[in-house]
Amino acid sequence: MEFDFAEEQPKFLMLMYGLIAFVAVVGGLLLLLDVVPAWFARRREAQLVAASVSGAPLPRRRKQGEGLFALFFLLPTVLLLTVGLVVPAIRTTLLSLMDGSSTNWVGLRNYSWMFSEGSIVRVLINTLIWVVLVPLVATGFGLIYAVLVDKARFEAVAKSLIFLPMAISFVGASIIWKFVYAYRGEGDQIGLLNQIVVSLGGEPKQWLLESPLNTLLLIVIMIWIQAGFAMVVLSAAIKAIPGDIVEAARLDGVSPWQMFWRITMPSIRPALIVVGVTLTIATLKVFDIVRTSTNGNYDTSVIASEMYNQAFRYGQNGQGSALAVFLFILVIPVVIYQIRNLRQQREG
Amino acid sequence: MAVFTRPRQAFVIAGVIGLALSATACGTGDDKKSSKAGSAECAAYDKYEGHDGKKVSIYASIRDAEADLLRDSWKTFEDCTGIEIDYEGNAEFEAQLPVRVDGGNAPDLAFVPQPGLVKRFADASKLKSLGADTKTMAEQNLPADWLKYGTVNGTLYGVPLGANVKSFVWYSPKLFKEKGWTVPTSWDDMIKLSDTIAATGVKPWCAGIESGDATGWPATDWIEDVILRTQGPEVYDQWTTHAIPFNDPRIVDAVNRAGTILKNEKYMNGGFGGVKSIGTTAFGEAGLPVTTGKCAMHRQASFYANQFPEGTKVAEDGDAFAFYFPAIDTAKGKPVLGAGEFVVGFTDRPEVQAVQTYLASAEYVNSRAKLGNWVTANNKLDIANVASPIDKLSVQILQDKTGVFRFDGSDLMPAAVGAGTFWKGMVEWINGKDTASVLQGIESSWK
Amino acid sequence: MTTATPTVAAGAQKTDGTPTTTAGRVRKRLNSRTATLVSIVIAVVWTIPTFGLLISSLRPEDEIKTTGWWTAFTNPQFTLENYEQVLFGRSASSGQLAGSFINSLAITIPSVLFPLAFACLAAYALAWINFRGRDWVYIAIFALQIVPLQMALVPLLKFFSTGVTLGGVTLMPAWDLVDEQKFAQVWFAHTCFALPFAVFLLHNFISQLPGDLMEAARVDGATHPKIFRTIVLPLITPALAAFGIFQFLWVWNDLLVALIFAGGGDETAPLTVKLAEMAGTRGNEWQRLTAGAFVSIVVPLIVFLSLQRFFVRGLLAGSVKG
């Protein structure tokens, strides 16, 4: 197969149209927002002039101008979200009350299935382990690393290495970890972990078979991928701490330990929240890692992978949707936390 | 909607311009196609004429090298008729197809390897029944045993295409010759041979059921083959249709019989370790120790031939070959477990029907078989066109009138069982759980 | 932890006005040495799995499948065959990697730009324009992050294939796109799915900007679009770069959305789709994926390295209210 540039032309053309559309939409929106208020301002000025001439009472400044701006700023996002996520979320909720082929209403049967099935209860527990460990360890690790590496000479290289896993697709990651956890009962090991065990004089183990160790090992993969995200964001936040504050603290003779707790931590709190919340949600939705490593066998399944299997592979739309709705419910604590944060922010 | 229509308009405009440009660009390419029609080479395709320039999309799970062979196989058909076949193969086929169909974006044709999935689409009235020409062609060329699996509630929806034989045990003819072992022709001989080999310190069997998100399926094939052998085809049919419970005592019996090999620490798992290593051994690697002498026998389908590394001679006198998984009770016939895909149509435009008919024809199956690495149950297949020894053996078995053919049971069951709890249950079974509770669990999941 | 305790003691001493002792200085240098050492070790450990993949990608197929990658050091057998197969393979599906590379670019670039722009506008409105119910709008958008995109595939596909009709009135016709036009669907889908996270991330940064700055501009008579363009945008460049990188990585590595909305044809299939196909019908050719993973990693890495300098300047430029 030779590479034929002419064949690729339509793609570039399409990309160009995409970029033109982008410029047209965003530019047009901003232009619209600039022109329209200017027109309103002129009209209001004219009204003011007219009013002052005729001596009539001044028209009150209307507050809705703000609302209009907000509407236009939010319009693209709200429209896209309605089509892309709100409608599907409502549909999923409705489907969760229907049977596998989405033809008959079955009430709450899918939910009672969820809690009566022994294996599903295990799934819920696993999800809990994931959602506690991943954000905690990944954020903690990212933070420690960001502090350790700050202003070191090889900082850029080290950060790139930690960030590297984020650039690898799940297909790539699953192969990478296959080379870590693989097991051979006899002959040469091809898995790194077993090779280490064997060279230390131990017996090779089938890592992915032993519950609950296997869940922890899968969590390691997720942390391996996500710690780079935490590290990059937190490192940037640390660098944004104004130099004069740090300098002042140093002049006061504050130890590094105190510096960390009294200056660094409070300053990067917003970034910590972003990282923690993002990782929590990402973890709730994770399914590729489990699906490609064990497909949920050996007590490793989580809600999202079970949802995918039920809805897409087993043709059980109702049960799959019920699991998805359960995910919506699980995120409520995070949402409440976010509301509290927002309130504090508005007050502070 | 004000802002919203803007990108849309841009896209539509973009699309129109794009189409115009591509139309001029391809102008010269189109002439080549129809020029072949009417030539001697095209005489066989006359009956499919009249659809010049039409497009037919096909979606399947076959990809990479095998997909290239597919594309090559209908090249002449495309050139002669002017129908353009747009083939797409994907690993996530079983999960993606329902999404596309539900989303209103179904392909024209799909090659579905699971009769259970054909039934699901037919029940949801998503499928078109076969056109008259296609039906005639299919009924002429394909055995009734196979057509039955493409039929839902009396209507024929799927035309059997490719096939594979699952009742095979892979071994090394070289090693067997060297050690003086003979290929067993009965179950008892096979067990005797296993004991002989085990006594020499070599694990006679190897197996592996790890297969990504399909982990477990090789074990279900094992079980099905044994059920077919111990209980016969009637019980097998009742079992796959859930006329008898999944954990019927006869089934429990058969599973335990399979366990005398699969869960026997003396026999398993050559080249990999103990019985439990079956669960984590990739199915593709599981049979490779056969060629290195670390394992003597590996039960796996005919397509396992492709798993051996390049340079391995797969032949009756080579490094690896397969023998028929022997019958237990010869009175119950010569059971053959197999699988294959079915061509189903989501649309029935004339050109789609033409392609569907063509795929059932003698022209097609021989054109595909000549390219190698393919077997079908289509009786128009000329065995002279089949080159590889293992494919030849498979065709012989499929065309053998004394054979009792049955389709892979897990593909017949609803996906939640056949591709869900059955697979998972087998993983637990290999991992040490007892037969009764595993089968009980699968039974309770089948509603 | 053990090293931290004496430092606190030393720090406490220093607050009394005692000049830094030599011992203290040595200890401090030692600490930074340890920190350096530890961070190097971690970086190396973190990279070992990827490094193993790199070594594997250069080994022959049967070696990969039978021995560990570390044996390559004692028994070096290297080949470029995996890369050859991936880049110029005999099969039609692997031979056109260059084409799918372009597809990946054509999918990724607009899929990053659109959500970036829309989320930026929305985040500004939610942070700095006063209107009723804005907190609820924000919380609603935030909560949408949890909707699994798998559940959105079918309705969105229906939206494209049948359009929108309400009470017999066609609000939007079916898109009916063919070949590379399908990119538009992918952009649309990726934009939808990216928005909640993008709004959440950018809102966090935009709302942290100093209020005085906005107030001063308002007093000068600047309108919201003007403030947005001249004050906010320049200040949040690092945050934009950050989201840009994450969205780029996500779209570049995405398989599911591309599969559903672009399909696997040569005209539209991105790298990930082609790579997944390359493992063979029964997944047994996975050794090719070792090379494939490295081919697909190149672009994201370049993007990360070239945008990294934005991070160094500080992602939360205005995190401390001025």
From TrEMBL, chain A:
<comment type="similarity">
    <text>Belongs to the binding-protein-dependent transport system permease family.</text>
</comment>
<feature type="transmembrane region" description="Helical">
    <location>
        <begin position="268"/>
        <end position="287"/>
    </location>
</feature>
<dbReference type="InterPro" id="IPR035906">
    <property type="entry name" value="MetI-like_sf"/>
</dbReference>
<dbReference type="GO" id="GO:0005886">
    <property type="term" value="C:plasma membrane"/>
</dbReference>
<feature type="transmembrane region" description="Helical">
    <location>
        <begin position="161"/>
        <end position="183"/>
    </location>
</feature>
<keyword id="KW-0812">Transmembrane</keyword>
<feature type="transmembrane region" description="Helical">
    <location>
        <begin position="68"/>
        <end position="90"/>
    </location>
</feature>
<feature type="transmembrane region" description="Helical">
    <location>
        <begin position="216"/>
        <end position="238"/>
    </location>
</feature>
<dbReference type="InterPro" id="IPR000515">
    <property type="entry name" value="MetI-like"/>
</dbReference>
<dbReference type="Pfam" id="PF00528">
    <property type="entry name" value="BPD_transp_1"/>
</dbReference>
<protein>
    <submittedName>
        <fullName>ABC transporter permease</fullName>
    </submittedName>
</protein>
<feature type="transmembrane region" description="Helical">
    <location>
        <begin position="321"/>
        <end position="339"/>
    </location>
</feature>
<feature type="domain" description="ABC transmembrane type-1">
    <location>
        <begin position="124"/>
        <end position="340"/>
    </location>
</feature>
<feature type="transmembrane region" description="Helical">
    <location>
        <begin position="123"/>
        <end position="149"/>
    </location>
</feature>
<keyword id="KW-1133">Transmembrane helix</keyword>
Automatic annotation (TrEMBL), chain B:
<dbReference type="InterPro" id="IPR050490">
    <property type="entry name" value="Bact_solute-bd_prot1"/>
</dbReference>
<comment type="similarity">
    <text>Belongs to the bacterial solute-binding protein 1 family.</text>
</comment>
<keyword id="KW-0732">Signal</keyword>
<feature type="signal peptide">
    <location>
        <begin position="1"/>
        <end position="25"/>
    </location>
</feature>
<dbReference type="Pfam" id="PF13416">
    <property type="entry name" value="SBP_bac_8"/>
</dbReference>
<protein>
    <submittedName>
        <fullName>Sugar ABC transporter substrate-binding protein</fullName>
    </submittedName>
</protein>
<dbReference type="InterPro" id="IPR006059">
    <property type="entry name" value="SBP"/>
</dbReference>
<keyword id="KW-0813">Transport</keyword>
TrEMBL record, chain C:
<feature type="domain" description="ABC transmembrane type-1">
    <location>
        <begin position="101"/>
        <end position="307"/>
    </location>
</feature>
<dbReference type="GO" id="GO:0055085">
    <property type="term" value="P:transmembrane transport"/>
</dbReference>
<feature type="transmembrane region" description="Helical">
    <location>
        <begin position="291"/>
        <end position="312"/>
    </location>
</feature>
<keyword id="KW-0472">Membrane</keyword>
<feature type="transmembrane region" description="Helical">
    <location>
        <begin position="227"/>
        <end position="252"/>
    </location>
</feature>
<feature type="transmembrane region" description="Helical">
    <location>
        <begin position="105"/>
        <end position="129"/>
    </location>
</feature>
<dbReference type="InterPro" id="IPR000515">
    <property type="entry name" value="MetI-like"/>
</dbReference>
<keyword id="KW-0813">Transport</keyword>
<dbReference type="InterPro" id="IPR035906">
    <property type="entry name" value="MetI-like_sf"/>
</dbReference>
<feature type="region of interest" description="Disordered">
    <location>
        <begin position="1"/>
        <end position="24"/>
    </location>
</feature>
<feature type="transmembrane region" description="Helical">
    <location>
        <begin position="136"/>
        <end position="157"/>
    </location>
</feature>
<dbReference type="GO" id="GO:0005886">
    <property type="term" value="C:plasma membrane"/>
</dbReference>
<keyword id="KW-1133">Transmembrane helix</keyword>
<protein>
    <submittedName>
        <fullName>Sugar ABC transporter permease</fullName>
    </submittedName>
</protein>
<feature type="transmembrane region" description="Helical">
    <location>
        <begin position="187"/>
        <end position="206"/>
    </location>
</feature>
